[in-house]
Amino acid sequence: MMKKSPDSATVSTSSIAPVNVVDARFKANPFPFYAQLRAEAPVFTVTLPTKQRAWLITRYDDVLSVLKDERFAKDRRNAMTPEQLKKMPWIPPMFKPLERNMLDLDSPDHTRLRALVHKAFTPRLIEQMRDQIQALTDELLDAAERKGSVDLIADFALPLPLTVIGRMLGVPARDNPRFHRWTKAVLSAGTNMNYVVLIPSIMRFMGYLKKLTKERRAHPQDDLITALVQARDGSDQLSEDEVLAMIFLLLIAGHETTVNLIGSGTLALLEHPDQLEKLRGDPTLIKPAIEELLRFVCPVEMATERYAREDIEIAGTTIPRGELVLAVIGSANRDASHFENPDALDITRKNNRHLAFGQGAHYCLGAPLSRLEGQIAITTLVQRMPGLRLNTAPEQIRWRGGFILRGLEALPVSF
DSSP readout, 236-293? Predict the structure, then answer.
C-alpha cells in the first residue's frame, strides 16, 4: 500500500522502500530508484507535499507517449471534474495572469500562443547573442580566477543565463540588481511551494514588467519584449497578460534548465575525469558532450504537470480521469532499452535521443538558447581552468529539493 504524509512525497509497495521524491537527499542520486520502478512498477503513485496524488511514468516509451498524447491535458480545467477542481490548492488571484502561458495551455490556445511567440523568439535572435554570451562567460571567469575558489553556481552558472535573458528582454542595466533579486524570488517558488511568502516580490516584479512592456509599446527597441509586443499573426497579437506570462516562462523554464545544465554538468565532468580530459583535449566534442550531459544529469527531472482527460491505461495500470501525471524524463534518459550502458557518461555517444527538452507540442522553445549557453559556458570553463577541481568532499555537495527540476544548491570549486 502507498503511505501518505502531509509534508513529503512518499511511496511504498511490498518490494519498493518508501522514498521522498522531492527531498534534496533523494535528488543526489534518484537513478537506482527509477531503475527499480522501470523494472517492477513503471506506473507508480506518489503523494506530493500539497497532498495531491501523482502518477510517475518511468519507461522511455511510456514517457514519450505521455509527452505526445493529447489525452493528457496541460490545463487541469480541461481534464478534471468540477468536484476535483474544488479540491485543488488555492492560487492567489494576482497570479491568474501568469496562467496564460504556453506551458499550462492546450490547443488551440497553446498553438496560437506558440505561433506568435515563434515570431519573436527566433533562431536569429538567439544566434545574435553568441558574442555576448562568450564575453559574459569570460568576464565571470576572470572574476572567479582572481578569487581562486568560488561557488560555481552562485558565481557562474546562475548569473550567466540570468544576465543573458535580462539583456535579451531589454532590461536596462541600471535595473539589473532589482531584476536579479525578483527573479531569484520567483525561482524559489519551485522549491518551497509556499506562494504566500513570495506575493510581495512577485507583485513588485509583475508591476515592473508591466511598466516595461508599456514603455516598449510606446517606444519600441531592438529587444525581446518589443518583439513579443509587436508579434502578429494577421490581426492577432499577444495580450498584456500573455506577454507577462511569456516573460515569466522564459525566466523560469529557460533559465533554470541552463543553470542546472552548467552546474550539474560540470560536476559530472569532475566526477568522470576521463571524459573531462577528452573534452579538454578536443573542444569540437562540445556539442555531443552537451547532449550527453543533458541526458545524464537531467536538469529537468520530470516533465511539467499533465492531467488525464479520461481513464487511461499505461503498462497495465489505469490512471483515473483528472489525476496528475508526471513523466519522469530522468528515468527515461537512463532506460537501457534506448541507451547502451545508460549509467555511464560518454560525451561521444551517438544517436542520443534524450528527452531533456521534452517532446511533442510542448517541446522546449528555449532549447536552442540553453544549448548555446551550455556549450559556451562549459567549453570555456574547461579550457580556461586546467586545474578545475572540487573544493569539498563529494558527499558534502548539496542538491535542491523539488519535484520537477534537478540541480545543485552550490558547487564549491578551486582552479
Answer: EE--HHHHHHHHHHIIIIIHHHHHHHHHHHHHHHHH-HHHHHHHHH-GGGHHHHHHHH
